[in-house]
């Protein structure tokens, strides 16, 4: 059966087993280890730029999430180059501004709207307690976080945001590597993510463990051993290098997971490119 005129051809993707979630993080960390300084420099500049954008009155809080998919292309471009024997370069962070920008910006709008709706929706569960804490109207403390209704509201927010996050999982890569429109990229990413729910679940659990449990345990141990007035400072100093490497690994894993799902089995090397570089 032929496709209707003007309808884009579906993009094929692989359905992978659960173990690939661990594989994505291992490969990403290996790439980070091979060019640690370059990746950390990219990460530092990325967050500095987002911080500067966020300082712009009113518009900054809207622009920062909208620009995240645009900057994500920089990490994709750096990983693509490293896979082919090159070194990640700082100028690649701005690659998204030269690569299908008007298809990337709508992705950021979807992110902004989706997260906003998820956060506002928590009011239906806890009467607005979590929203007041997030907006700074009340203090976010242990008593609030241990409240059953607030915990239920947080879970509700995650469930509301999940379709948006899955739609955006592969979307920036699909825009720049496969020249998708924003709508096609979102739809394809959602279908591929649902089809690969097993590795994505494993990946998510590992991210929660290394990004939440490990820092929490270390912070708790420091709080037990160090004076209360210095415990937080010591924890930040010890955890900052770890968290920097962890976050950089996550950015690289965006490319690794895309390659695994949409270019499974293809040979990649400096001599044999397998996908179109970000333009």
Protein model, in words:
There is one protein chain. It is built from twelve helices and no strands. By secondary structure, the protein is mainly α. The chain has one domain. Helix 4 (101-121) packs antiparallel against helix 8. The two termini are 33 Å apart. The model is unreliable at 269-274 (pLDDT under 50).
Features:
mainly alpha
Summarize the structure.
With 279 residues, the protein is mostly helical.
Mean pLDDT: 87
Number of strands: 0
**Pattern of helices and strands:** HHHHHHHHHHHH
- State the secondary-structure class: mainly alpha
Radius of gyration: 20 Å
| Poorly predicted regions | 269-274
> What would you call the shape?
globular
Number of helices: 12
Taken as a percent bin, the fraction of beta residues is under 5%
Q: Tell me about the largest β-sheet.
A: none
């Amino acid at each position: 059966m032929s496709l209707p005129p003007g309808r884009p051809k579906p993009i094929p993707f692989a359905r992978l087993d659960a173990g690939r979630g661990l594989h994505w993080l291992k490969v990403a960390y290996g790439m980070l280890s091979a060019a640690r300084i370059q990746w950390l420099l990219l990460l530092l500049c990325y967050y500095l730029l987002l911080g500067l954008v966020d300082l712009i009155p009113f518009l900054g809080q809207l622009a920062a999430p909208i620009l995240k998919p645009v900057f994500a292309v920089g990490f994709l471009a750096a990983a693509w180059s490293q896979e082919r024997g090159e070194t990640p370069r700082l100028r690649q962070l701005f690659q998204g501004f030269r690569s299908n920008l008007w298809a990337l910006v709508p992705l950021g709008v979807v992110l902004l709207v989706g997260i906003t709706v998820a956060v506002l929706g928590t009011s239906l569960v806890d009467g607005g307690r979590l929203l007041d804490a997030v907006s700074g109207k009340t203090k976010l403390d242990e008593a609030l976080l241990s409240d059953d209704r607030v915990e239920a509201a947080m879970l509700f927010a995650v469930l509301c945001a999940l379709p948006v996050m899955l739609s955006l999982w592969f979307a920036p890569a699909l825009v720049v590597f496969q020249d998708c429109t924003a709508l096609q990229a979102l739809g394809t990413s959602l279908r591929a993510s649902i089809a690969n729910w097993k590795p994505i679940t494993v990946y998510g659990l590992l991210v929660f463990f290394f990004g939440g449990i490990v820092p929490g345990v270390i912070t708790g141990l420091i709080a037990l051993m160090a004076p209360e007035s210095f415990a937080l400072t010591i924890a930040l100093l010890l955890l900052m290098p770890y968290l920097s490497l962890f976050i950089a690994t996550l950015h690289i894993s965006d490319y690794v997971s895309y390659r695994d799902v949409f270019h499974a089995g293809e040979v990649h090397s400096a001599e044999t490119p397998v996908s179109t570089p970000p333009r």
